[in-house]
């Protein structure tokens, strides 16, 4: 994210406190000379919490734990 976009997002979020005089995305985009859609997406990303990616666990184990123990016991004897 470039500096101008970061500054616009920061300015937009800082000016949301007053319910009578809230900044709009369109007005903020015009002030900072940005495209409305780009600013809207950046604000949306800023407000969305980061979620951890689900790591694939791979293929399930071929043998059950009790089968592994039985196999190990058989090998030892």
Automatic annotation (TrEMBL):
It comes from the Eukaryota. This is Uncharacterized protein.
């Amino acid at each position: 994210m470039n500096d101008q976009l970061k500054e616009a997002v920061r300015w937009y979020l800082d000016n949301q406190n007053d319910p009578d005089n809230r900044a709009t995305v369109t007005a903020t985009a015009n002030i900072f000379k940005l495209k409305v859609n780009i600013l809207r997406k950046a604000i949306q990303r800023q407000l969305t919490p980061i979620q951890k990616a689900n790591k694939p666990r791979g293929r399930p184990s071929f043998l059950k734990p009790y089968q592994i123990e039985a196999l190990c016991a058989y090998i030892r004897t």
